[in-house]
């Protein structure tokens, strides 16, 4: 049995590195920016990326295991400065097992301009569902963790950290990666329409409600 648990943890660590690489390759994080964490479902401990190490080539040995109070359980480096933010989300959201923090340029740009994301694509409706904006607080502070926990407890799948970046919440790593990437996809499409001087048409609310009913979401 313990062997099974160890195998899943190894898989989890490999997947964290893979997701981090994808984010770097897609230009959603810079060399040292962003962080990713994940836990086995229901666990009070999670694995997180380290601080100050090049994010494009992380290996499982670089990761650090911490508990929900941020105490280091396993690993050698320094855990991400945003560990309190990740822990705060896991504490209030038992359905969340993976968190991606990235610096999506278009998503952030729209938020800086005070423009909210609109239900302009099927993915915006199905994948993002609920996006909340978190007012600015300095990275790594308890204040930011508290603000994030407040917004996360509303059931949001994505948070936009004003003047900073985004946080994507998922039931697993690929779910969280999909939310992070969809944010940027929707923001970019919306920006293109607006840059051409047009107000993008949105999927009608009636249709959105129908989708949610059909897939038992919301
Ligand atoms: Zn950041």
TrEMBL record:
Residues 14-191 form the Class II aldolase/adducin N-terminal domain. One of its GO terms (molecular function) is lyase activity. The keyword Metal-binding applies. The keyword Metal-binding applies. InterPro entries: Aldolase_class_II_sugar_metab, Aldolase_II/adducin_N, Aldolase_II/adducin_N_sf. Pfam families: Aldolase_II. Keywords: Lyase, Metal-binding. Gene3D superfamilies: Class II aldolase/adducin N-terminal domain. This is Class II aldolase/adducin family protein. It comes from Ignisphaera cupida.
